[in-house]
Amino acid sequence: MTNQHNAKLTTNTGAPVGDNQNTMTAGVNGPVLLQDVHFIEKMAHFDRERVPERVVHAKGAGAHGVFKVTNDLTKYTRADFLSEVGKETEMLARFSTVAGELGSADTLRDPRGFSLRFYSEEGNYDLVGNNTPVFFIRDPLKFPDFIHTQKRNPQTHLKSTTAVWDFWSLSPESLHQVTILMSDRGIPASFRHMHGYGSHTYRWTNAEGESFWVKYHFRTDQGVQNLTAEAAERLAGQNPDYHTEDLFYAIEDGEFPSWTLSVQIMPLEDAAKYRFNSFDVTQVWSQKDYPLIEVGTMTLNRNPENYFATIEQAAFSPANIVPGIDFSPDKMLHGRVFAYPDTQRHRIGPNYNLLKVNQPKNPINNYQRDGSMRSDNNGGSDVYYEPNSFGGPKESPVDKYATLKIEGIAGNHSYQEDDFYTQPGDLYRLLSEDEKQRLVDNIVGGLSTVRLEEIKIRQTKQFYKADKDYGERVAKALNISIDQIK
């Protein structure tokens, strides 16, 4: 590291990097631009850092199930699988820890991945979220760096709490998610006893072409239950596959877990005037402003016959959308739309969608040919280009994505709103006295092992900015003077 001290950050071709915090977008709220070569190089390299297990979400469990519509929301979306009350759609779910390796314990303090696939009649729709409504960062350019802090130090090959808290303390947008992670919700009692969220803002469009912003909430019908830090640590030693085992045998015994899906709906024009940036994944929409509207129920009722064939090879991607559902200008979502399928092409191969678990129910008709592990007839003798004069598949203009007006100057833009403290502070103040104490104890348990005092002080300042009592409690437990954090 000494020869790199205070050196300019560069690309792999030696070009200096002008902005490593914000992706290049078309205006402040515009989409991420493909010309951002630094982001593309950084993310594509990151996607290929681990072989063959997933770079993130390596340890997980899953099951088959069904989604049933219980409420008519066709005035908001023309998505076929949501088109009528009572309609049922086959689905697949995978739950996972984020940072742990394939052999890690299920009960680590970590967000849980909440990945769902709906095998609709118009293609696979994947909703790839977490058990938390927010995330640590809001720009995908920072994602490889964030995950590096969760992995092993290249010299010691050990996990580093110093790296974790150093990054968080220098990324104040992480405070909301850190507060959730260090609270009781940081370790679910089981996959069955946690909520799930789409986290990002998405866009729904109805049959008349009218669009709305939407957020997804899956509420567990089993009730939320969490583990204490002590219980989780004990289980990590006694049964590191505790959550995997719990899900499998609950389904095996006929105790099918279920979740109720509700959504928040925001008119398009509200986004420009809402008090928080509607596309910032570190913020939530108030349910007082946009109440939950029930959509349907998800029930998991069948275990996989073979874990590798079904769960390990399942290639979830937020890029998999269907008519009536589209993306918002959420920059983290745009980054994932690129990164997930790029990772799958590397991890499984370019023809990963030909695997049974990834195949849609409706026929695949396109001109993609060849590539490793091509397992079908490779298009046979049919025409292999488009446009053509031989009756090959043609585009369907009626299924174009909904248009979205964008304007602005192309550049490395940060979100204009930098209120990182209101929502974490509000969350802290909602906790009971016992919950506050456990939150502080969990934070101190991690921060006390950090090697650099400067990082402890900097992070404690973040807590203090969210809530005075929050910061003072952490400071006292770490023997940091209040003057140092004010």
From TrEMBL:
Keywords: Heme, Hydrogen peroxide, Iron, Metal-binding, Oxidoreductase, Peroxidase. InterPro entries: Catalase, Catalase_3, Catalase_AS, Catalase_clade1/3, Catalase_core, Catalase_haem_BS, Catalase_immune_responsive, Catalase_sf. It catalyses: 2 H2O2 = O2 + 2 H2O. Transmembrane segments: none annotated. Residues 10-394 form the Catalase core domain. The keyword Transport does not apply. Heme binds at Y340. This is Catalase. It comes from Brochothrix thermosphacta.
